[in-house]
């Protein structure tokens, strides 16, 4: 399977704990995006990488959120001191420089209890 | 900032009928408009897209139309089948071909096709 891969698919954590998600984009894609989707809503943009550079961050990305893409390949999204409001589906997408068409992964569903 | 509104929020049709979903956008600089289909527990899957220099695009049973003046675009599905049942999202971006490309999504339309 050469699509966007996300791990884990599901994560249940206690409030106050830290969590980290991983995204492996399509291999030739140099652009990587993180989105968050809550129930009944469309995905909301969080942040964007071109290669290893984080070029844009949404105001939705509070100080508790940090994303990295150290070698321009896979990316991680960490949430520190999780809150119940962080419960959502976290989606990763990738695209190439030539086309802005974004291909999404299956997402990581986070539940904060 | 950019805002995308999508209607209706739910749509129920009989198998074989057509379905139409409409979206409006606020940023006149938007130049790329994709449509995604999302099935339960899965990520959004691109089904068709259109750029601002084109008024209409068709792919088999799916077509999208764009009215730049009115700032609205629509998805048309003909001869609907039960497997078309899903949540459909429209999106807009003002950076096609540029260095960014983050998408602004509508809230989705839950389409149910009854056999």
Walkthrough of the structure:
- The complex is a heterodimer of chains A (113) and B (115).
- By secondary structure, chain A is an all-beta fold.
- Chain A has no helices and eleven strands.
- Chain A has strands spanning 5-7, 10-13, 19-24, 31-37, 44-50, 53-57, 65-68, 75-79, 88-95, 103-104, 108-112.
- The model of chain A has no long low-confidence stretch (mean pLDDT 92).
- Chain B is an all-beta fold.
- Helix content of chain B is 0%, strand content 53%.
- Chain B has strands at residues 4-7, 10-14, 19-25, 32-38, 45-51, 56-59, 62-67, 72-77, 86-92, 104-105, 109-114.
- In chain B, the strands form two sheets. In chain B, strands 2, 4, 5, 9, 10 and 11 form a six-stranded mixed sheet that branches. In chain B, strands 1-3-8-7-6 form a five-stranded antiparallel sheet, with no helix packed on it.
- Chain B starts with a strand and ends with a strand.
- At the A-B interface, strand 5, strand 9 and strand 10 of A face strand 4, strand 5 and strand 10 of B.
């Amino acid at each position: 399977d050469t699509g966007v891969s996300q791990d884990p698919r599901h994560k249940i954590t206690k409030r106050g704990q830290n969590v980290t998600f991983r995204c492996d984009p399509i291999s030739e894609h140099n652009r990587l995006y993180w989105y968050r989707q809550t129930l009944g809503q469309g995905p909301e943009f969080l942040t964007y990488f071109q290669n290893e550079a984080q070029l844009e961050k949404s105001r939705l990305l509070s100080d508790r959120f940090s994303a990295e893409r150290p070698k321009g390949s896979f990316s991680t999204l960490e949430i520190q001191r999780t809150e119940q409001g962080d419960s959502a589906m976290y989606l990763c997408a990738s695209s190439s420089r030539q086309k802005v068409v974004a291909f999404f992964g299956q997402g990581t569903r986070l539940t904060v209890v | 900032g950019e805002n995308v509104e999508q209607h209706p929020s739910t749509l129920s049709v009989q198998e074989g009928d057509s379905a139409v979903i409409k979206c409006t956008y606020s940023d006149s600089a938007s130049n790329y408009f994709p449509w995604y289909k999302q099935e339960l527990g899965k990520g959004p899957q691109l089904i068709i897209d259109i750029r601002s220099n084109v008024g209409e695009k068709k792919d088999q049973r799916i077509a999208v139309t764009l009215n730049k003046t009115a700032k609205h675009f629509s998805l048309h599905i003909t001869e609907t089948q039960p497997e078309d049942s899903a949540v459909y999202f429209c999106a807009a971006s003002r950076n096609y071909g540029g260095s960014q490309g983050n998408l602004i999504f509508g809230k989705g339309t839950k389409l149910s096709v009854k056999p």
